[in-house]
Amino acid sequence: MFSRMITSALRTLPGLALAMGLSATAVSAQSGGGYWQGVQKAGALRCGAAVAPPYVMRDPATGEYSGFFADLCREFAEVLKVKPVFVDTTWDNLIAGLQAGRWDVSLALNRTPVRALAVQFSIPAMEYQISLAYNKNNPKIPAEATSVADIDKPGVTLAVMSGTAQDKAISAAVKSATVLRLPSNDETRLALVSRRADILVDASDTNLLFTQSNPDWAVALNPKPALAKQGVSFGLPHQISPADIEVVNIFLEEKVATGYVDTLIRNAVDKVLKGAR
């Protein structure tokens, strides 16, 4: 009798877990099936995608995703022999959605100690640092500026995407300047172009795209000491096993070592620049 009760309870566990908001992938992992095996059973790799060119881009007309992390998502889905599915989200929700099982991986997530308390990470696909883009004719920005301290003055406004690594880094670094947090990449750039903000705080490669698109007036500063220098990785669920992490790490190791990721980055940058012309 007791054994039959245990068997019955085990059979109902997946249904109970799903009712509690856990994904089918999480149920499979918790029952000892392995995380990626759960993805394979589901038939789709769900990638949480917050827009930040050239990492992740989304065509507003078609909804199609591009960018080098979107490409890596597709290629890892090919390894697993499943369909890649992109789930649109914001940087504020990129970790919370992963924790809630709304997607299987988060794209282009910076590795930080605070985030590591909530999620796990793959090895980095690339290294990341933060730069400051601004109008070279703005009298508020000293020509000799080299550090955050040089621009941390009353009356200076810094635009940054809310919830990003650059938001956390600049918020911790400034004392006197105003931090203007906006929800999207486009809005931060518009704030600088319209002079609502004096400085755009973003990833150095993203700001490089912006300055190359506006060469007549836009320049970028990589502050010294560095405002932040981190790896950019796949974000993975906290409950994932070391063996499952190793699967995605081996996938990325080869892509990085062969220069393939560099090629994907160049292609994404070229696409952004062509679109800006």
Q: Strand count, sense and closure of the main sheet?
A: 10 strands, mixed
The structural domain count equals 2
Cα(first) to Cα(last) distance is 74 Å
Q: Which architecture of the largest domain per CATH?
A: 3-Layer(aba) Sandwich
CATH class membership of the largest domain: Alpha Beta
Order of helices and strands: HHHEEEHEHEHEEHEHEHEHEEHH
Decide which structural class fits the backbone: alpha/beta
Please report the total strand number as a whole number. Answer: 12
What is the percent of helical residues? Answer: 40-55%
Note the beta-strand portion.
15-25%
CATH topology-level name of the largest domain: D-Maltodextrin-Binding Protein, domain 2
Looking at CATH, the homologous superfamily of the largest domain is Periplasmic binding protein-like II
Low-confidence stretches: 1-22
Q: Give the C-alpha Rg.
A: 21 Å
What best-fitting shape do the alpha-carbon axes yield? elongated
Number of helices: 12
Q: Overall mean pLDDT score?
A: 88
